[in-house]
Amino acid sequence: MKKALLFILFPIVVFSQGYTSYFTGNTINVNTNPSPACCLMGGATEHDNAMVWLLQKADAGDILILRCSGSDGYNDYIYSDLASQVTVNSVESIVITSAAGAINPYVLNKVANAEMIWFAGGDQYNYVSYFKDNALEDAINNHINVKHYPIGGTSAGMAILGDHYFSAQNGSVTSATVLNNPYDPAVTIGAYNFINIPLLNHTITDTHFDNPDRKGRFTGFLARIAADEGIRSFGIAANEYVAVCVDETGKARVYGDYPNYQEFAYFAQANCGDSYLPETCQEGMPLTWNQSGQAVKVYKVPGTNNGNNYFNISDWQTGSGGTWENWKAINGVFTAAAGTASTCVLGINDFVADAVTVYPVPFDTEIHFNGLDKAAVTITDSQGRKVYENKSVRSDATISTSSFPAGVYVISIEKDGKKSTRKIVRN
């Protein structure tokens, strides 16, 4: 009993090349029954109720904090401070300081045995540099897409969770920079090649939205995605003390302390219509994305302590407690105004089940398609190498994938000038 008490009160600290581990709790690993979930926090102190919501999805299992700076700040907070509301078996914070540390067998084993993973803040390019294109990335995506276990992050940890992400490879970037030149070298956007959360397909995230300067750069990010890929782009942003908690149905509850504070989450989407792309999105030129003043439709949701307000990112139309805004940029100048609800219906280039179905997810020896009619399909691996191409795939088609190694793949479907891209995992 005394030995077990020491584990609770005094974290075990493991130092090794490329990582440092801080452990609190029961050293005997448990296997529980977690539920899929994702939590996106805007970058300041964690919202307790949102964190409890996510921890409950871990079903009293082992919680793993992955970070690239800092130390053990989450251990006591999760294991002790929230103990009256939720129970966990253990909390381990692993501070990874190199790519070698990320693929250390100890780290990979901890990821494999975690019931929940949480990414802390810091510099998101460290996460990209150390975690991407290696065994740790594969283990994280296995946690999400094979086990269907909960995951989340704050600040930089939120910034990396969309299938599009601002990597900050060349440092942070202001709205003025993005709006005046969306292709400035500082505007480094990754796509389809890191974390794969299916509900965040075609979605980029942004944080620290208390700073009004963030809205312009966020609009620029969305414009880049739309222009580069010819798709409707989507985004989720949050104020610093706000959390967006998404369950397996796509219902995104927003936690905060409104009305005591002006705390909001923003759900942004490129407007639909015959012409939704930016009018001017070119290297060296100011951004113009106007579309009659409705280029980007945004549902602005106040975050409350009980998380009653929400938006559904499975259809990007239905919500409760929020208000609609229209965002635009003309010659590099951003404007937001009161708006009306989006009337967009997700279609083929948004990968909705009632239009095009790709299954099973994850896949094994075959991929099946329903809803296609002579569409061009290309599949590439996580390194960008083409592993399949067919320019005339018909409805109810089946593709043999028995020769595909386990890992993450990108499927691109193109039809009638519209292109849809998403990631899918092979077991």
- The helical percent reads 10-25%
Please tell me the total number of domains: 3
> Between the first and last Cα atoms, what is the distance in angstroms?
41 Å
Gyration radius from CA atoms, angstroms: 21 Å
Shape: globular
Widest β-sheet, arrangement of strands: 1-2-5-4-6-7-3-12-13-16-17
The whole-number mean of residue pLDDT values reads 89
How many helices?
A: 10
Low-pLDDT residue intervals, each spanning 5 or more residues: 1-6
Q: Could you tell me the number of beta strands? A: 26
Structural class, by secondary structure, is alpha+beta
Description:
The protein has an eleven-stranded mixed β-sheet with strand order 1-2-5-4-6-7-3-12-13-16-17, sandwiched between helices. The chain is built from ten helices and 26 strands. It has helices at 2-9, 48-57, 73-81, 99-102, 105-113, 124-131, 135-145, 156-159, 175-180, 214-229; strands at residues 12-16, 19-25, 37-41, 62-67, 90-96, 116-119, 151-154, 164-166, 189-191, 203-206, 234-238, 243-247, 251-255, 264-270, 296-302, 310-312, 319-320, 323-330, 333-338, 357-359, 366-370, 375-381, 386-393, 398-400, 407-415, 418-426. Strand 1 and strand 2 form a beta hairpin. It folds into three domains: 1-32 and 55-150, no CATH class; 155-346, no CATH class; 359-426, Immunoglobulins (Immunoglobulin-like, Sandwich). With 427 residues, it is of the alpha+beta class. It is globular. Mean pLDDT is 89; it is low at 1-6.
